[in-house]
Amino acid sequence: MGSTHEPRANKLMREPLKAGTAIDYLEYRDVTPLIGREYPTASLKKIYDAPDRDAQLRDLAITICERGVAFFHAPQDDLSVDEQKDITDLLGKLTGRPKENGLHVHPLWNDPNNLAMADGRVDENIYVINADAQKKLYATMPNHQDMDRQPPDLAREWHSDSLYENCPSDFSFLRMQETPPSGGDTLWCSGYELYDRMSPPFKKLVEGLTATCAQPVFKTACAAGGYPVTSPRGSPLNVDFEFSPSHPVVRTHPVTGWKSLYAGIGIHVTKINGVYSYEDTLIRDYVARLITRNHDGIARMHWTRGACAIWCNACTLHAATPDTHLVEGNRVGVRATGIGDVPYFDPASTGRREALGWPSY
Predict the structure, then answer these.
(1) Which residues have CB under 8 Å from 177's CB, separation 6+?
(2) Dihedral sign from CA coordinates of 81, 98, 311, 18
(3) Sign of the CA dihedral 143, 144, 148, 154?
(4) What are phi and psi of 291, to 5 degrees?
(5) Which residues on neighbouring strands pair with residue 29, listed in sequence order?
(6) What CA–CA distance (Å, rounded) separates 176 from 66?
(7) Distance (Å, rounded) from C-alpha 139 to C-alpha 221?
(8) Which residues neighbour 60 within 8 Å (Cβ) at sequence distance 6 or greater?
(9) Any residues with CB less than 8 A from the CB of 313 and at least 6 apart, and which?
(10) 133 pLDDT band (50/70/90 cuts)?
(11) Which pTM value belongs to this model?
(12) Boundaries of each TauD/TfdA-like domain copy (predicted)?
């Protein structure tokens, strides 16, 4: 099915969107010059209830597309789960995603190991983040047992949400309901900056590549549990067991028009297409090295109860820190995720540094 939805190389570049002034009143600080924005006192509930809600959410969405991720440290306890879902949906709708798309439904929604939320409810558009439950949910993943007996390769944890779908995620909104005293931080890496840190010849190389993003664990999990896979999943293109699409290694962001490294590393990337196996390994190891040697392109969130993060999957990779087993307490959060455009690379687009007139490195 992936070949049916190959990146549309000849697609005309969308006109980039610019934020207005609707959220200029919010206190903020940038996490680093390259990625992330913190809103230490903002109330998402007040934004949602405001008369100019759509204008504020549109500006917030564009800001997140430019900055990669937004942190809301003040507890957002007054925001309902339905409002969290609606905000996630509106962020995509207000920035031009396909009208037929909506919120993602996890492929393993029918699995009995999925946990209810803190209030006891279950919702097909909410994925409950819980380390203990995820261990059961992905018990059929190859090498799952070995991961308990050797130091894990955390480079493979970097990913963009729903990369295994023909039409992957745009915005994700995670709210933490329970946290241990330390550990469980999430890191985001700027795909814009990963692209811009490459040499011009290497940029040309990866711009012409696609990657197969297969996730066979969903089929094996459904077979082992005896339940059907969820279908459709936020888009008419995300159906049945179609979990091996080809996505561009470098994509053009549909909102900013900037080039971003996208499908070059991580748990959902099976192979780089059209290259030899040792070249595949070389490229992915190179991307991992770009991440580790350029930590100025990373934003880190230390979670507290009620804190939220909203990020754009089209221009960031993220990874959770699997260290909560060393401390008392559990890490539990609720996440809503939207479904955006089919990823594409537009040759007419530019990198962020070129677009903003920044130095090349």
Answers:
(1) 117, 118, 305, 306, 332, 333, 334
(2) negative
(3) positive
(4) -65, -45
(5) 38
(6) 24
(7) 8
(8) 23, 47, 70, 91, 310
(9) 160, 161, 162, 163, 168, 169, 170, 171, 172, 337, 340
(10) low
(11) 0.92
(12) 28-335
